[in-house]
Write a structure and sequence with these properties.
two-stranded antiparallel sheet; single chain; mainly alpha; about 70% helix; globular; MetI-like fold; 9 helices
Length: about 250
């Protein structure tokens, strides 16, 4: 045993409420690391999917088809006006009952969408509803004269949106998008409710087995999410600086 591990083992013996067991027990360290990796994967998947939903939804809001516009507005109202935890439970327990399953061994029935899949879908649609409005506000900030200039060059609506409107709208939307994505990363902890083995789930499992590890593990959760959110914010701020056009969106 190394001196590092021995120090924390002695600390746990002397201070029973400060048992950093995952720093000297390989099994508990593995549980924490697997939970952290799941949190990172869940966050990345939800961030990417929610941004895609936001971009497509903002484009659909400007469509000429009233049915499409109404469907997007209904989606936004549903996901913005209900708690994300309720949405998560509804997706997993209600809609999950209607999803097909398969049997890898001829006996056990396994649903094609796991609890991790439902967490990604639910949380992405929740954050995506806010992203739609964020991008819509950015699109409305693009001057009409810019759109008219693009149309006068013979661009279609899709070309105008892709080549002119969206690149400008994105620059306006980044600060609000940053806030929403930060909130999304923090909201991934709610996947604990459907037994997704992310960091909070594994941490609770550790301190259920070792109550003396509760305080250190809660401290680990606090510090870890500060670091994860900090990395996201720094990345978004750097992206915003690179995308900035002098005199536009200020």
């Amino acid at each position: 045993m190394s001196g590092f591990e021995e120090f924390f083992r002695e600390l746990a013996a002397e201070h029973v409420r400060w048992n950093f067991i995952w720093l000297y027990d390989e099994k508990q360290a593995g549980r924490i690391l697997s939970g952290l990796w799941m949190t990172v994967k869940l966050s990345i998947a939800c961030v990417l999917l929610s941004v895609i939903i936001g971009v497509l939804g903002a484009w659909a809001q400007g469509a000429q088809n009233r049915v499409l516009r109404g469907a997007v507005q209904g989606y936004i109202q549903f996901f913005r006006n209900t708690p994300p935890l309720v949405q998560l439970l509804f997706f997993y327990f209600a809609l999950g009952q209607f999803t097909p399953s398969y049997s890898p061994d001829g006996w056990l029935e396994v649903p094609i969408i796991s609890n991790v899949g439902w967490a990604i879908i639910s949380l992405s649609f929740f954050a995506g509803a806010f992203n739609v409005e964020i991008f819509r506000a950015g699109i409305e900030a693009v001057p009409d004269s810019t759109v008219e200039a693009a149309e006068s060059l013979g661009m279609t609506r899709t070309q105008t949106y892709r080549e002119v409107v969206f690149p400008l709208a994105l620059r306006v939307s980044i600060p609000a998008l940053n806030n929403n994505l930060v909130n999304l990363v923090k909201t991934t902890t709610q996947a604990y409710a459907i037994a997704v083995p992310e960091l909070l789930y594994e941490s609770v499992s550790v301190w259920n087995d070792f109550p003396s590890a509760q305080n250190p593990t809660m401290l680990l959760l606090f510090v870890t999410y500060i670091l994860l959110v900090g990395i996201l914010v720094m990345g978004m701020n750097r992206w915003e600086r690179k995308m900035r056009i002098p005199g536009y969106g200020q």
